[in-house]
Amino acid sequence: MRSLILFISCIFYASAADLVLRNGKIVTLDPSRPQASAIAIAGGKIVALGSNEDVAREIQPRTNAIDLRGRLAVPGFIESHAHFTEIGQSKIQLDLTAARTWDDIVAMVATAAKKARRGEWILGRGWHQEKWDRRPVPEVRGFPVHTGLSRVSPDNPVLLEHVSGHAVFVNAAALARAGISAATPDPAGGQILKDSSGQPTGLLNEAAQQLARSALERDLDRRSAAEKNLEAERVIDLAAQECLSKGITSFEDAGSPPEVIERLRRRAERGTLPIRMSVMLRTSNDGFRNWIAAHPGRLIGIADNRLTVRAIKRYMDGALGLRGAWLLEPYSDLPSSTGLNVESLADIEQTANIAIANGYQLATHAIGDRAVRETLNLYQRVFAANPGKADLRWRIEHAQNISPADISRFAQLGVIAAMQGIHATSDAPMVIPRLGPKRAEEEAYVWRSLLNTGAHISNGTDAPVEDVSPIQCFYASVTRRTKTGETFFPGQKMTRMEALRSYTVEGAYATFEENLKGALKPGMLGDVTVLSKDILTVADDQILSTQVDYTVVGGKVVYER
Ligand SMILES: [Zn+2]
User: Fold this and answer.
1) Where would a tag sit more exposed on the chain, N or C end, judged by fewer CB atoms within 10 A?
2) 36 CA from centroid of ligand 1 (Å)
3) What is the dihedral of CA 393, 283, 122, 324, to 10 degrees?
4) Distance, CA 82 to ligand 1 centroid (Å)?
5) How far is residue 394's CA from residue 150's CA, in Å, rounded to a whole number?
6) For residue 465, how far is its CA from the centre of ligand 1 (angstroms)?
């Protein structure tokens, strides 16, 4: 008798849910049951979904049962393009995003220089010359000159990354460490900005950044292995905390080198990666071949769907703010320039051929309309040469400016537009100066036009370029309203359901995981985000104050407000 009772209780124990969320408005994005009040998760997967009564029997003494009190629960947000370790790094560097002037930045560096050891690099990120209240004095093309920075930090090299990640600003000590002088020529795909007397100003654009970054890497490399390891692990912890606190349960990393991926893999296998990651490989073509040889069959859903690596990242051009986006016609505010092609077409085509032969997704950064067209042309050529292999869901990252002639090609070729809603509203003030009003209206952040052709659009923030918050990005996607209250070409707005899909179903589609996540239904992963307000129905101005109340990954509450 006793063993029978034990046996029966074991059955109950086994079927009890780990987590039940009840009494909520659960929007599932599963067309067969769009809404429910309760959800039960056991063993990492959804086991029941329905009314409170339907799910009641899943609640056992060991179940964590949470009363949502009517709040909205949605499939866990999927950030489809951001930079994971950079998010962590940004937490341990000077945050320059809020600086109102160049002098503010110089003052922040002065304070840091007083505390730094002699020779230690001072790092910062997030400045944007267009967001300052006044132009720096002196200036070259709107950018500052390094003298002030060099004066406050004579012995410490300083490297300050532009918010876009496409330029750095350095002081004299860093120029010296990098071996850059008036005589140094521009490297291919980059520019060392010089003043009228030919001296470097401190701004290193696109590929020229690498001169200073290599000097930094050489110096960082001299630290002890223990020191390096500790920082790398801390960066992952900080990035994960930041994402989970904002409701993100899956993160698509837009390019990391093999050593970062191996570190993430070790954490996934040890059970210490609290967020799901899909990482695009960032390496040379030789590095890509070596990676494939060492990882036959790709890394798909390893460690209980914590880590996937089946994509490779390339860059066709730069960023619009720095006039590095590659355009079909010259910049309206710099008629001598059409921007930059930063990695050669031939080299990217080689990547494409390796990718298609080995079943890899290619994700190419393309912001200007010329870069988008060249990428579409390249994809089309490679697909045509490999019939039957065009189902790899190749992506164009950002796709910010698309010639009207190219819009329908995304859906035709099955190419995903991996866009960032928040870029439209934060870039808006400089888009019309750069492109002129006609191009801006026809080409810039045209997600409505893309959706009308049936294209897949995933959403994200490119963090740390922008805050990683899906709520802010959702708001930008559905309102196109800037910080100063203007609406940027409202005809291109997404509906709220489209924006939610772009952050869930479409994010999952972009990593071939639509049968695992992005919607809530029995058998799928138990990843859920609970919000303080119903972002599907509240007034526009209420969206931004919405808070993430719970983040659930695999049935475990990993963040609670
Ligand atoms: Zn990016």
Assistant:
1) N
2) 36
3) -60
4) 6
5) 44
6) 8
Residues 529/504/260/426 CA torsion (nearest 10 deg): -90
Share of the chain above pLDDT 70, in %: 97
What's the CA-to-centroid distance between 205 and ligand 1, angstroms? 16
pLDDT along the chain (561 residues), means of 10: 46 73 98 98 97 95 96 98 95 92 96 92 93 93 96 97 92 97 95 97 96 96 92 96 98 97 97 97 98 94 97 96 94 95 96 97 98 98 90 96 98 97 94 96 97 98 95 98 94 98 98 98 98 98 97 98 95
Structure tokens at 514: 């639509």
Q: Provide the token pair at 478.
A: 């559905």
Q: How far is the CA of 318 from the centre of ligand 1 (A)?
A: 10
Mean pLDDT of the chain: 95
pTM: 0.87
Distance CA 529, CA 535 (A): 12
Residue with tokens 């040379």: 284
Q: How far is the CA of 314 from the centre of ligand 1 (A)?
A: 10
pLDDT digits (tens, 9 = 90+) for 368-420: 999 999 999 999 999 999 988 878 999 999 999 999 999 999 999 999 999 99
Q: How far apart are the CA of 217 and the centre of ligand 1, in A? A: 21
Distance 260 CA to ligand 1 centre (A): 16
How far apart, in whole angstroms, are the C-alpha atoms of residue 386 and residue 1?
66
Between the CA of 18 and the centroid of ligand 1 the distance, in Å, is 36
Cα–ligand 1 centroid distance for 84 (angstroms): 10
Give me the CATH topology for the region 85-220. Answer: Diaminopimelate Epimerase; Chain A, domain 1 (3.10.310)
| Parts of the chain belonging to CATH 3.10.310.70 | 85-220
Q: Where in the chain is the domain with CATH 3.20.20.140?
A: 246-517
Determine the distance separating the centroid of ligand 1 and the alpha carbon of 234, expressed in angstroms.
Answer: 21
CATH 2.30.40.10 residue spans of the chain:
1-76+520-561
User: pLDDT by residue (tens digit) across 231-286?
Assistant: 999 999 999 999 999 999 999 999 999 999 999 999 999 999 999 999 999 999 99
**CATH architecture of the domain with residue range 1-76+520-561:** Roll (2.30)
Could you tell me the distance, in angstroms and rounded to a whole number, from the CA of residue 313 to the centre of ligand 1?
10
How many Å apart are CA 138 and CA 205, to the nearest integer?
19
CATH of the domain spanning 246-517: 3.20.20.140
Residue that has been written with the tokens 């009228």 in this structure: 196
**Distance from the CA of 19 to the center of ligand 1, in angstroms?**
35
- Bond into 274 cis (ω within 30): no
